[in-house]
Amino acid sequence: MDEEMTSLHTNGTWTLGKAPTGIRPIPVKWVYKIKRDSAGNIERYKARLVVKGFKQREGIDYQEVYAPVSKHTTLRTLLSIVAAQDLELQQLKVKTAFLNRELEEDIYMAQPPGYEEGGPNFVCHLKKA
């Protein structure tokens, strides 16, 4: 969890401040996963901070949703080009790939459990998504 929090702070994901009047911050939770190597041995423990987006209501808390994803046909096409032209393909591991875009909207989330600062009225004002 410390590694995840360090990454979020380094990327300037949010600023901490008092919640504006009438604003209901989105709750958050930690999701844990055990990463294993090819032999099945525990390699490391991974923690991700996720917002409970299901608590939001369309038209009230948000207007539109956009989530870029790649299609399997795109991946297959890329791999076939690499194989046909005898190219080398390298894999890139990105820890916080989703934190690229500056937000235009004002979104407030609750502080991560175990990392509360400033008191109960303080929330995180998201800057990146």
Please provide a written account of the structure:
The protein has 129 residues and is an alpha+beta fold. The protein is 17% helix and 24% strand. The protein has 2 helices and 5 strands, in the order H-E-E-E-H-E-E. The chain has helices spanning 2-10, 72-84, and strands spanning 14-18, 28-36, 42-51, 108-109, 122-126. The strands form 2 sheets. Strands 1-5-4 form a 3-stranded antiparallel beta sheet, with no helix packed on it. Strand 2 and strand 3 form a beta hairpin. The longest helix is centred in the middle third of the chain and has 13 residues, at 72-84. The two termini are 19 Å apart.
Keywords, please?
129 residues, alpha+beta, 3-stranded antiparallel sheet, two-stranded antiparallel ribbon, 2 helices
Count of DSSP H/I helices: 2
- Give the overall form: extended
Give the integer mean of the pLDDT values: 80
- Can you write the helix and strand succession as a string? HEEEHEE
Indicate the percent of residues in helices.
10-25%
Structural category is alpha+beta
Portion in strands: 15-25%
Strand arrangement, major sheet: 1-5-4
Give the N-to-C terminal Cα separation: 19 Å
Low-confidence stretches: none
| Sheet with the most strands, sense and barrel status | 3 strands, antiparallel
Rg is 19 Å
Number of strands: 5
